[in-house]
Amino acid sequence: MKLWLSKNSEVPVRDQLVAQITLGIASGDLPPGNRLPSTRELARRFNIHQNTVSSAYRELAAKGVVEFKKGSGVFIAKGEINTESSGLQQLVSRFLELATSAGYSSNEIKEHIQKALEPRSPNGFLVIESDEALREILLHEIRAGTGANADGTTLEEFSTVEEFTAKRHLVAMFDEEEKLKYLLPAGSSCTYLKANSVPTSMSGETRPGKEDLIVIASGWDKFLAFAKLFLLAANVDATALITRLTNESNWKRGIDQAAMVVCDPLTAMEFPDDERVRVFPLIAESSLKQLQGLAANYSRFQ
Fold it and tell me: Which CATH topology does 13-76 take?
């Protein structure tokens, strides 16, 4: 994964490293098991202090997204389940062992497995996301990308109302997997979305002129922060950047003077046929294709 670091940015280099590596993992640019550059290598590459890199790696390790291996380096943590046949056999064996030790008979186990494997006929997707602004953007992208119905709920509501799962395919961002795996009802599954790759989205874009005003607009405050971070790291002048949160009054004020408007797909609806707009989808193309396939398969049962 390519990293952009700017020592002249208002965002500390350490925070730039943490944010970019986190997004790289979310988008799949940094898959589990990959080795990260050493602190010395990154320090030499960007002419920064090794302590800065070490501090960033320690924060990522505390979050569980990277792990230190003595004598080997720093690696992206492996959080994915092995889906090879041998791994699946181990999962089945473990399930049967646990079910039997819990007192369930063979007939009861078979009955529940058969019920779980029965084809359902979902009438759409249910997005589980507690951040309302992020949830609205995800719902818009899923509806526009799949043509299917999509509704949303918070993690808190989902954990108390089981009927939310009825005839819905569950969807959540990748970082919710650890929380949700203990809440999913028997027989239900959840598709965990990867985030869009920033390097891929920025590829081929024409660099704005030094005097050009750039507006970053979104209803999600973290979108503003991440977009600004990457533009600053790409050596865009900080004085040329303006951020606008769309739930604030008069957020469009002065946007007509901008040479470029960077926004999420939902906010882009506010600028129809505007050639200045650069849309940054939050959902990775691979995840959207996965949802499209699910929607197509489910439509056959309607």
Answer: Arc Repressor Mutant, subunit A (1.10.10)
